[in-house]
Amino acid sequence: MMLTGSEIVKMREVGSVVIEPFDPIHVEVNSYGCHLADLLLEYRSDRIDPHGELEVVEHHIPPEGFVLYPNRFYLGAT
C-alpha cells in the first residue's frame, strides 16, 4: 500500500505507523524522508549464512561522505 504524506501523518497520529524520531519537515508528497545513519556494515564473506561466522567490517561515515564500491554487500540503518 502506498501512502501519501498526509496519510502517513494521520496514521502516525493514531499509532498505525511508528516513525521515531519524527520531524514533520521530512514529510514529503508520497513518502517520509529517511536519512542513513553514520555506520555501515560491510559483509566480506562470499556467502551470507545466518548460522555461520561472518566477516564484517564497520565503516563510520565521515561528514564528507563515503565511497561505496560495486560488488560489495553493505548494510545500513536509517
Automatic annotation (TrEMBL):
Signal sequence, start to end: none
Gene3D superfamilies: 2.70.40.10
GO MF annotations, alphabetized: dCTP deaminase activity
UniProt cross-references to Pfam families, sorted A to Z: DCD
Top-level taxonomic group: Bacteria
One GO BP: dUTP biosynthetic process
SUPFAM superfamilies with a match to the protein in the record: dUTPase-like
The protein, known as: Deoxycytidine triphosphate deaminase (DCTP deaminase)
Protein's organism: Pseudomonas savastanoi pv. glycinea str. race 4
